[in-house]
Amino acid sequence: MKYRNMPTVGSLILSAFLIAAPSAVMAQDRVDANGMPTDRSTPAEHAATAELNNQISGANARSDMMSNLDNDSYLAQQQQYNNQLQQNQAAQQQYQDQTSP
């Protein structure tokens, strides 16, 4: 009777060990050959990241500006179309008025 629960207890101990082992490894700082932690950026990496972020921000600003210009152009063309449509409708109405008995 005592031995029936042994596999269960062994499985629990093994599970606890397997769950704890990866977290213990992750807690250690990993270092490169120069002793620098590999999970932290160097000053040069920070500078390179800042430069890339600035480039992307500039590209996004230019894209937004072009998008706004495209939108303004679209709105102007839409207004022109609406004006021409109204002129055409007025001309059709005038034609119908002139040709009807």
Describe this structure in words.
The protein contains two helices and no strands. The chain has helices at residues 6-27, 43-99. The relative contact order is 0.04. The model has no long low-confidence stretch (mean pLDDT 82).
List the helices and strands and how they pair.
Blueprint: H1 6-27, H2 43-99
Helix content bin? over 70%
Biggest sheet overview: none
What sort of overall outline do the alpha carbons produce when their principal axes are compared?
elongated
Structural class: mainly alpha
The counted number of beta strands is 0
Radius of gyration: 37 Å
**What share of residues are in beta strands?**
under 5%
Show unreliable segments.
none
Order of helices and strands: HH
- The separation of the N and C termini measures 113 Å
Mean of the pLDDT scores? 82
In DSSP terms, counting alpha (H) and pi (I) runs of 4 or more, how many helices?
2
Key features?
101 residues; mainly alpha; 2 helices; 78% helix
Outline of the structure:
The protein is an all-alpha fold.
